[in-house]
Design a protein that fits this description.
The protein is an all-alpha fold and 134 residues long. It has 6 helices and no strands.
């Protein structure tokens, strides 16, 4: 019984000394996650401000924007979500990522580089959404 307590204490102390884990092969780097998450948060704001009548339409529009963001960053939803899961499991790394995301968004806002409320051309938007969902 005494040895079990010692083993548990030693294991706990050793785990506290472990350095930040490296992302697994194929995972997005912290810098890539920051850049993608900045754009994702902007896309969420655009979708919310788009003025759609139903939450389903807002969600469809957000998914369209998200797919476009991932394509622009040359990644896919699987790699993005797997990377996100890795960083969520390592809270220190996720905290570093979100600190950088907030700093970037704050800097863009103070520089006036945040997009204004999205101005939707309903016909063009409908065509794009139709293409996305077909």
């Amino acid at each position: 019984m005494k040895y079990k307590k010692i083993v548990v204490c030693v294991a706990f102390l050793l785990s506290a000394c472990v350095t930040d884990p490296k992302p697994p092969a194929g995972a997005l780097s912290k810098e890539q996650m920051v850049a993608i998450l900045v754009e994702v948060h902007i896309a969420e704001a655009k979708a919310q401000q788009a003025g759609f009548r139903t939450s389903d339409s807002t969600q469809f529009y957000y998914k369209y924007l998200e797919k476009k963001i991932l394509k622009d960053f040359k990644t896919d939803s699987t790699q993005y979500h797997d990377s996100y899961r890795f960083y969520v499991q390592h809270i220190k790394l996720m905290n570093e990522i979100y600190t950088a995301v907030v700093d970037t968004l704050t800097a863009r806002q103070s520089e006036g580089k945040m997009p204004e409320k999205i101005n939707l051309d309903s016909i063009r938007t409908q065509k794009k959404l139709r293409k996305y969902f077909n």
